[in-house]
Amino acid sequence: MQVTWRDIRAARNTYAALSAACEVAGYDLVPSDSSTGGIICYSLNSINEPRLRSEIRDAPGITIVGGPHASACYREVAEYADYVIVGEGERTLPRLLDAIRTGSSGRIPGVATKDGYTPVDHTVLLDAYPCFSRIKGYLEISRGCPHACAYCQTPRLFGNRMRHRGIDAIAASAAHISDARFVTPNALAYGSDGRRPRLDKVEALFRRLKKNRIWFGTFPSEVRPEWVTDEALDLICTYTAGRKIHFGGQSGSDRILSMIRRGHTRSDVEVAVDRAVSHGLLPIVDMIVGFPGESEEDLGMTIDLIRQITRYGKVHLHYFMPLPGTPLASSTPVQLPASAEKIFGSLALSGRLTGYWTEPERRFLNPTGDTEEI
Ligand code: SF4
């Protein structure tokens, strides 16, 4: 049975992971840049969904759609797709393919159609699946997040308990690549409950991957600022190849940080920057502007923090975007004053600030119209 995977840049790592899971079940996901094939699979985020909606609706074959947007808006997506996978796909996609192949009419847990949704009956055990197989990707070491940042889809998609892939399983996948890059909501939380660090586990992982060049704490394995301790940075400096540390700061206003439930303060960000610099690492800090309710005073504090960070490191700036399935889904971003855009433009010209703070869609777009991960 031919199964096509619609090649979407934003979903390349999802393709690597699902292709490995489907391979175990006897299905080969064949990549394509169009809607060809008897069965075609899509992974949608909220940026590429409007662009791909009509393609899915008009596809000649059976369409299966998953990803963060489809999971959050499954009723809406089921209006134009045949099947919607809600949440994780490693077990659900092969189950659904089995049902289509055998003509079974039973409902599949974790799948929505126009006729309704059958709630999922499992949580994926990462060790039950390889990180990737023929299609190489990043090493996904953890899933789920106990934090509840109001703008973020991760805990809504993967749950609020951290699950980790075992070191043996990670090493088995890492043996097929030279550079080890990781996917995790907080790299320094590897092996922990996401609240209390287990740096012994992080070190054990590093030791085990001694044949790989390790990139840790940079995209796509950023960390939280309050986890940037001297001990953690010592480990990163000792075992990894990178000389950068990437973490989320998000706002310079403690009022906004509290409103978005970040669970850290501005001071945590300032301390993390100092610690990174004193370890000889370049701090790269994600910041967001335009949060709903962000006052002129809040924005001023964020600009002040951005200026402070860019004296020593870099800032990656985003304009707030309400994502479906999050507590801020129906909120309205605050428009930026021209004066702020001028400041950001000037910092960007000096190379100390990157990102997109005027048109949120552009941060997901590359010149070919494909999207980056959100
Ligand atoms: S932004 Fe990071 S820390 Fe916050 S909920 Fe999302 S994954 Fe967790």
TrEMBL record:
Its cofactor is [4Fe-4S] cluster. Residues 1-107 form the B12-binding domain. It comes from the Archaea. Signal peptide: none annotated. SMART domains: Elp3 (SM00729). Pfam families: Radical_SAM. InterPro entries: BchE-like, CHP04013_B12-bd/rSAM, Cobalamin-bd, Elp3/MiaA/NifB-like_rSAM, Methylthiotransferase_CS, rSAM, rSAM_horseshoe, rSAM_sf. Keywords: 4Fe-4S, Iron, Iron-sulfur, Metal-binding, S-adenosyl-L-methionine. Residues 131-360 form the Radical SAM core domain. Coiled coil: none annotated. GO terms for molecular function: 4 iron, 4 sulfur cluster binding; catalytic activity; cobalamin binding; metal ion binding. This is Radical SAM protein.
